[in-house]
Amino acid sequence: MIDAGVLRAEWTKFSSIRATLVLSVATFTVAGLFGWLFGNAAANEYATATPQERLDFQPLDQGMRGMFIVQLLIAALGALVASSEYGSGTMRASVAAVGRRGRLVAAKAIMTVLTALPVSVAAIWLMFTAGQITLATHGAPSVMPGAPEALRILLLGPLVFTLLALFGLTLGLLLRGTAAAVNISTAFLLIPILASSAPGILRDILSTYWPNTAAFQAVSGTSELPPVLAFGVLIAFVAVMLVGAFVQFKNRDT
Length: 254
Description:
mainly alpha, 81% helix, ABC-2 family transporter protein
């Protein structure tokens, strides 16, 4: 059981780090900027497109392309929940104050969710709004928030981002350093870019089963897997990472 005092202590530590506020604001700002940039680029392409290209135009996909970049910031935000304490040298004191390491890890996971979820909601909704308004003002097709495909992204997208923040947290605990955690999370999340040039089975893994790719495809409705299974790939991956991070944290010196 986690008492309110432990969570308040985690919030105090987390909110006192300037980098967390900067990164949260940057995530929100970058999301809106990418929504506008990709919306503007897509509108320009639509203006010169052939009739067939206009029929194939997907305004939602065009306006939300920035999600693949914003995910990196969300994962970094999660990493800071743990790595910042290693950087400041307060982790040992936190363990002594809480007593049970499992309780401390759970408190950090809850703090990650409470921080990343609202940031993710704000970022995705701003990206959607900026992208679709930009498309509409330039005379290109756009999608309303109430459309089924839009609701899927607006409601499930923040959950994907929050899970990626938990992934960042596990790396912060495992690697005990902000730079290392952020670098590894960035590399891991961008690996699917190589899918088109990868051979055979590796291409299938990267384009269908890689955790963040599978979840994003489930959210966008383009997955070859059943949506629940595709989303479950990311959930299972993060759960395994959390267990691994807890076991290592419990069995080593802080």
